[in-house]
Amino acid sequence: MSDLPIEPRLDSRTALIIVDMQEGFLRDDAAMARLGFNLGLLREALDPCVQLLEAARNAGALVVFTRYVYKPDYSDGAIMIELNPGLKAEGALKAGDWEVEISPALAPRAGEAIIDKSKPSAFYGTDMDEVLEKNGIERVIVCGITTNCCVESTVRDASHREYQTWLVTDAVAESARDRHDYAIQCMTMLFARGTTVAEICAASS
């Protein structure tokens, strides 16, 4: 059994996973805005994620960015595109487009992992596990967007893989308040411990 303390601490055995903080979810000229997503609500996660990123870098924690990226023909979209054909029609999150790029406020540095995915979970069909294992990670702290889709899918899969999993409840966002609130309730019931940016910064200083 790991001797890792049960605390929301950024250190060498911790990965900060920043989920899908992409221009396509944050800019009002993106396809998601045309599809009716409330990007103003999603942008509420940006400043808290910036604070966490700075704290992670200062603490020597592993930083992992994820990006939702579809092939240009959306052949990897599967059921998501079937249920939401507007994503393809509007050209959302397409490889090579500006929409898939991480927000400049969170610009990745050389050596920081960027994991592209075409499904909500950052573990499904990616090398996330290998990246975490190679770096000796036992604890993951998750922030980003959207709360009830990619964040929740990633949190559940991290928990299933026995990582000590923390959800930063004031550094995640959803385009509808009810889905945001309910997703946090579900995640912190069975899959993750809830924490805040302030608690993480205090534990990591």
Note the main sheet: 6 strands, parallel
Shape: globular
Gyration radius (Cα, Å) is 16 Å
Multimeric status of the protein:
single chain
Question: Which regions are unreliable across 5 or more consecutive residues at pLDDT < 50?
Answer: none
Strand content: 15-25%
- Count the DSSP helices: 10
Helix content: 25-40%
Give the helices and strands as they follow along the chain. EHHHHEHHEHEHEHEH
User: What's the CATH H-level homologous superfamily?
Assistant: Isochorismatase-like
Q: Give the strand line-up of the largest sheet.
A: 3-2-1-4-5-6
| Name of the level-1 CATH class | Alpha Beta
Average of per-residue pLDDT values:
96
C-alpha end-to-end distance: 26 Å
- How many independent structural domains? 1
Number of strands: 6
CATH topology: Rossmann fold
Assign the structural class, choosing from mainly alpha, mainly beta, alpha/beta, alpha+beta, or little secondary structure: alpha/beta
Supply the CATH architecture. 3-Layer(aba) Sandwich
Structure description:
With 205 residues, the chain is of the alpha/beta class. The chain has a single domain, classed as Isochorismatase-like (Rossmann fold). The protein contains ten helices and six strands; from the N terminus they run βααααβααβαβαβαβα. Strands 3-2-1-4-5-6 form a six-stranded parallel beta sheet, with helices on both faces. Helix 4 runs parallel beside helix 10 and helix 8 packs parallel to helix 9.
Q: How do the helices and strands line up, and which of them pair or pack?
A:
Layout: E1 14-19, H1 23-26, H2 31-34, H3 39-42, H4 46-59, E2 62-68, H5 78-83, H6 86-89, E3 113-117, H7 128-134, E4 139-145, H8 147-160, E5 164-173, H9 177-190, E6 193-195, H10 197-204
Helix pairs in contact: 4-10, 8-9
